[in-house]
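Researcher: I'd like a structural prediction for the single chain below. Treat it as a standalone chain; there are no partners to consider.
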Amino acid sequence: MMRRIATFILTLLSVALLKATSPLPAAETLNYKVMFKWGIVQKQAGRATLQLKQQGNTFIATLFARSEPWADRFYSLRDTLTSTMSVSDIMPVRYERIAHEDGKYARDVITMTRQGNSVNGKSVRYRRRKDTDPVSSTTISLQAEGPTVDLVSVFYYLRTIDFSTLADGHSHTINIFSGKRKELLTITYHGREELTLDGTKYPTYRLSFTFTDEKSSKTSDDIDTWIWANDTRIPLKLEGKLKVGKIRCLYTGKL
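Model: Treating it as a single chain, here is the predicted structure.
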């Protein structure tokens, strides 16, 4: 779960039936800390930086995630995720994930094409279990009907949504491509809630996320998220369960 939260930090939401109301900035850097909580123990386990820049008619979004030195002794993580999105609809055309986790190397590259309501993805997956092994590769075909995002672009599409138009309990399901499969992401809106971070109070929209496969079986634990209830709609907090304790991703500021 820690690997999923850290590499997928703020992979949150896309509501296709709602009108996009807020343009994304041409350039931005957001920072987060990843906290491990078990009872009264709370310790920073990692950190992440999310960068956005516009290049012509595309946005390039890159997420850098890493574990802290003390956590490296248990599970070392250095991940870079990049999504190339169309400026017009914030839908991805290319997604890449490069991961160095617990001594292993992995790289996924997905290229996406759309024709009408259909989305086709070609996923090339590279793997190496240890430094002395050769790199192997496999190719997987992905297909979906309707709005389809990846683990980074979903965060930005989220920020175009006007949550004030949603009723408490509203839910919606969209497609999300990871390197090896298509998953279904169901988002449920739970209304407004005040959140305190580092002594500062924020008005937020609270949401929960459920990931399932085509047979409605869960592919990971649910995730709770708090979104800043202002024009930026920046995710401020993300929380998920571990076998022991919880993992929390907390917003620390904008550069």
